[in-house]
Amino acid sequence: MMTYKPSTSLDTRLDTPTTAELRALFNSRVIAADDPGYDKARTVFYGGSDRRPAAIVRVGDVGDVSRLVSLACETGLELAIRSGGHSYAGHSMTDGGIVLDLSGMKALEIDPDLAQAHAVLGSVHFFGENNFEEGRKEYFLALRANPPYPPVYQPYAQLLMVTGPIEEARIYMNRALELEPFYWVLHNLNAWIYYFEGKHKEAIEACHVARDLKSNYIFTNWLLFLNYAKLGDADKATEELQTIAHLNTGDDRYTDEISDASGKSGVEGLFRWLIDININRPVPAAGMNGHPFYIAWWNAILGNSEESVYWLERNMETKDKMFIYFGLIATNPDFDILRNDGRFLAIIDQIGLKPYHTRKAR
User: Fold this and answer.
1) How far apart are CA 295 and CA 275, in angstroms?
2) 147-156, pLDDT tens digit by residue?
3) pTM
4) 199 phi-psi bin (left φ>0, alpha ψ -120 to 50, beta other)
5) CATH topology of domain 2-101
């Protein structure tokens, strides 16, 4: 009975997936606010808590447990975990987030090889504790016990994106796609790995597959923007950034500004516009909300090493360090300009990534 609050801040969270989307994603029962059993499902043992989750997923198998935890990590949605609902403080419920309801999993099935247990424990170590080596060990045990077990390949590929080597992440990503070719999260992650590999055309293709499977995931737009920018395609990058701004604000107030920035300075102008928005006119949405890490990232892409290090240091002073992206700085090629900077190396050491910092400066 606990509530998991991802490292992403409220300003960077996505809208909660619709009930239809959740029901398409999970085999288990999804209880929404307009369902007859909603009030009963959100009632906790001790009472005194009147929290209203966006949805309650009454899971029936470990695969759906793993998918729901991954969904929370991917989207930044608050996830409450409920077993018997006996949390006196009400931690087994959430306001506006999603509840992983384990109350229906009362049967005991012995897995002699424990692949599922190792996979879940690996994710607890990795996502919950940033304990990469313990997570790696559990994922290996899961794969050894059951090599074709789909739920382990995605999180292990994500772990390898943090620690490297990216070449190994590619191997596990390809296997994950073989096992679950229609899972949109995998195609989005596939695009990220291509981005880290410098294969931007392939990343764009993967983004389009992800978008075909799930059309309203704004971080796919961000991925398209970044990859078009890397290819120097200012027109396509402009279109994606205009779409992002529209989705974030609900209107077209920034459309002309973005066009002007691109018209004056191309791709560089787009990143300068993003830096200005973040510093002077933040918008409560990912990539534009004034978070120090985003300012550091956009400056790194422009080659502004001093500005990038400055904002990374400011990021270290924040409570929410945006670890979902900040945790990738050891392997993200955009930060290669800082690899020999002592201040950057100190940050790498502080967040426990020193053993994995093997990329060379450019």
Assistant:
1) 6
2) 988 889 999 9
3) 0.72
4) beta
5) 3.30.43
324-354, pLDDT tens digit by residue?
899 999 999 999 999 999 999 999 999 999 9
352: left (phi over 0), alpha (psi -120 to 50) or beta: left
Instruction: Name the CATH superfamily housing domain 110-215.
Output: Tetratricopeptide repeat domain (1.25.40.10)
> In degrees, to the nearest 5, what angle opens at C-alpha 121 toward C-alphas 117 and 136?
110
SS3 104: coil
- Per-residue pLDDT band at 315 (split at 50, 70, 90): very high
CA-closest candidate to residue 207, choices 196, 219, 197: 219
Burial of 307 (0-12, 13-18, 19+ CB in 10 A): middle
- Do residues 187 and 152 make contact, with C-beta atoms less than 8 angstroms apart? no
Taking CA atoms, 339 is separated from 192, 313, 335, 354, in Å, by 21, 15, 7, 11
- The packing angle between helices 153-163 and 166-179, to 10°, is 160
Rounded to whole angstroms, the Cα distance separating 280 from 335 reads: 24
Which residue from 191, 252, 262, 281 is spatially nearest to 227, judged by alpha carbons? 191
- Cis ω for the linkage preceding 284 (within 30 of 0): no
Name the residue with higher pLDDT: 252 or 19.
252
What's the one-letter identity of residue 105? Answer: M
pLDDT tens-digit readout, 67-116: 888 888 877 788 888 876 656 556 778 888 888 888 777 664 546 568 88
Intrachain domains 2-101 and 110-215 with the same fold: no
| Interacting residues of 71 by C-beta distance below 8 A, sequence separation 6+ | 17, 25, 77, 98, 185
Q: Which pair of tokens denotes residue 208?
A: 């389009």
For the chain, domain boundaries: 2-101, 110-215, 217-275, 291-362
Look at strands 98-101 and 79-82 and give their pairing: parallel
